[in-house]
Amino acid sequence: MCGIALILSGVDVVGCDLYRESDGPPSTDAEEPALVVGDLKDAIGRRGPDSLGVRKVFVQLKQTDSVGKDDDKEYTEDDLHICYEENANNNISSIFEVAIVQDNIINRWITELYFLGATLQLRGASPIFQPLVDSSGNILVYNGEIFGGIHVSDDKNDAETLLHVLESCCYCNGSEYGKVCHCTKLGAQFIPEIISKIKGPWALIYWQQKSGTLWFGRDAFGRRSLLVHWPTMGDARFVLSSVSPALTIGKNSDTEVECSSSNTCYWEELPCGIYSLRLKAPNASEQLVKQKLVGEIRKHKWTDPLLNRLVEWERTCLDPKVDPFFSNDLQFQRDQLALSSNSPKAVHKEDARMGLEEHRSDIHNHIPGGFLNFVADDTGDARPAAKVLNALKESVMRRTVSRIFQTPQHEDEIDDHSPIAILFSGGLDSMILAAILDQCIDSKYTIDLLNVSFDGQLAPDRVSARAGVTELQNVAPHRRWRLVEIDAVLSNLAWEAKHLLSLIHPAKTYMDLNIGIALWLAAGGDGWVDGGLCKLHNNHQRYRYKSTARILLVGSGADEQCAGYGRHRTKYRLGGWVALHEEMRLDVQRIWKRNMGRDDRCISDHGKEARFPFLDEDVIKTLLDFPLWEIAELDKPVGIGDKKILREVSWLLGLKQASEMPKRAIQFGSRIARESNRKNFGSNRAANQASAGSVEIHHSLS
């Protein structure tokens, strides 16, 4: 996880209204909150505690006296003078002191690009320091991982590899994917073509020196946060950042949220995609009006066909009435599940790296005969649940095993070391991730299970988490499981609540704040361990513990893809399979705005990285390859028909108890929503009457 940012000043940015999310025209408020660079450094520095660096680029129009007299001249990038500031403390005027008088050249209209990069390094053999600069003068700040699409050597860092690949890309201005230009004739690829290949979460800002073009964007599902400030009358700068500094979330120093529908926020979530901003000089006839370079923003299409299918969320088949292969097989499988009274044993750990064909015989040996219908059909083909399990295993393997950058440790520290943790409720999704992670990493490592509660041992998520640890101990007895019980009292979190307002921003409802606080506390990993429950070190006492894991597995995306929300059941009841599909498609396509940016900012504030196995591109594709009735069966009761396919995966992992768990959102399972309702609305009843979850926060928190 990294924190990245860019401040672009001295440019007349055009085209941003096409991508602005807020309603209405840009803000004309001259008293808009000021962005302070020091605050921005502090905010992104929390995300990347290993290093923090800056890099400045100055761009000027380079014009001779004779050229300046041509009123019809349109200047090109050849007329731009680019200078790099080696030391952030240098004075601007000193850099151009000589250039201004040499060769009868007049330099005008200074544009500044200020890159900031804070690094939490988790991959590669040696440390890196952002911003990264190559021999051509290109600059990259990158927050993400490359799990496929571009080859990354075991000893290399993802950002270093990407910078090297981008260096050879086409730099012809105006060129687009599919068009022939000088560069493509020489074998060069277009930047959107390279970026579209990346499998994994990412957000990036890239300066291509030869074309004078700034590239930026985030992955198709918004798994990494990137906020944008579009230029306004109050602040004409164009700004990108992983997170909002606290002082720019509102006008008042007491961190009031001043972002109603009639008052445009400083920050917006950047919509997913690849963007470019090409610097150019204005036409000579416009020079008297536009005393700045012009930056034209464009959004580029994804070029990878598979990615486009995932973005459009196109499913193989929707309605069983038009599927020639649909029969009573669905009911037969469910009947077999109900008849299976004994929990199957877990798939043997040594099979974690094997393909489905290689470990099918082992699965047959461990699962009751009636339940074999979830593994393979009469022809020997793998059932959907087995295919999803295999895809999830590969997803977790990619996120936890290969090329993890670690500092050297003493042998006596390894036994107690937990490099990877899970945000853990004991529910279906987190139990599946825990069981799969056990099969993916060396048995010498302890796995931390991070659980937050606002009602001590009585919160539903705490009860299910403790039960879940016992079930995991049964299916994986050789693994050390450490449940970290993080207890909190909402009334004691005044400072944290104000801090979280800046992290969730531009989200601004009580529901967003409640979820953000719960995630932030869980990611911090500071709690208690029940030695008697966890059976660690022969210590049966309850002791204080803070997790040092820097990689956190999170179950985000499971509900959206597998019909886990109550509204999915409502849509299915009212409109059948097609209506259900459309609602699920909407959930997936807006997950970047409603969930992922907020969650990424809250978790990474501790200098930790969230990874989302259910949102792996291959997992999404696998789920889309099945008819919708294989994913969910919403005629069945809650806890059975919703997320049907994941319940079957849970059975395959030996987690019978977890397979029956109902859906429970973190704000309810931890009981922070109940405490928030009482504090802010007086009671749960009053909060329900006010639809508290969607109410925006407009007052100071105390």
Automatic annotation (TrEMBL):
Keyword annotations of the record: Amino-acid biosynthesis, Asparagine biosynthesis, Glutamine amidotransferase, Signal
GO BP annotations listed: asparagine biosynthetic process
CDD domains in UniProt: Asn_synthase_B_C (cd01991)
Biased composition (Polar residues): 679-692
Record-linked PROSITE patterns: GATASE_TYPE_2
UniProt GO MF annotations: asparagine synthase (glutamine-hydrolyzing) activity
Coiled coil residues, start to end: none
Record keyword Ribonucleoprotein present: no
Chain residue ranges for the region called Disordered: 679-702
Sequence ranges assigned to domain Glutamine amidotransferase type-2 in this UniProt record: 2-281
Database matches in InterPro entries: Asn_synthase, Asn_synthetase_domain, GATase_2_dom, Ntn_hydrolases_N, Rossmann-like_a/b/a_fold
Record keyword Amino-acid biosynthesis present: yes
Alphabetical list of Gene3D superfamilies matching this protein: Glutamine Phosphoribosylpyrophosphate, subunit 1, domain 1 (3.60.20.10), HUPs (3.40.50.620)
Name of the protein: Asparagine synthase family protein
